[in-house]
Write a structure and sequence with these properties.
Blueprint lengths: L1 E3 L7 H7 L7 H9 L4 E3 L2 E2 L9 E2 L2 E2 L11 H11 L5 E6 L5 E5 L8 E4 L8 E5 L2 H7 L6
Length: 143
């Protein structure tokens, strides 16, 4: 997998400051330190049982990104406002504006879910048991 348009270099200190808001799994922390967001290639992923699947991963969010909509903190605030009962951290979006999120469930490992923001209930669909597995599932689009 390649990452195009990665974010600015992220320091351990800046990441630790962000994690005062929410704890991140080690594999996702490593990704942020390596890339700090950006556009993946390949970028297609299957979302079991979701209408319109497969979809794309348009951009991974990062910390200190130029575009507000690609900023991890901005998306965290947005999902808390829009879906206050969800314990998730948005990590990426598709071209339609729906979100890929890490679950936050205490001592259990974070899984990746798809939050369909086109659905009035903003339904959640399981995608992968970990962030590493999510990256492994990215594939090229087949016409």
């Amino acid at each position: 997998m390649r990452i195009e348009n990665p974010g600015p270099r992220l320091s351990q200190e800046a990441l630790a400051k962000f994690e005062l808001q929410v704890k991140l799994p080690a594999d996702y922390r490593d990704f942020l330190l390596r890339h700090n967001g950006g556009a993946p290639s390949p970028n297609t992923i299957d979302v079991p049982n979701a209408p319109g699947s497969p979809t794309d991963v348009q951009v991974f969010f990062g910390i200190g990104r130029c575009e507000e909509s690609s900023e991890l903190g901005w998306n965290l605030t947005m999902i808390k406002d829009r879906c206050p009962s969800y314990r998730v951290v948005p990590i990426a979006c598709d071209s339609g504006g729906s979100l890929f999120c890490l679950t936050q469930s205490g001592p259990l490992p974070s899984t990746v879910v798809y939050c369909d923001l086109d659905d009035p209930a903003s339904a959640l669909y399981p995608v992968a048991p970990s962030f590493s597995e999510f990256l492994r599932l990215l594939r090229n689009f087949e016409h």
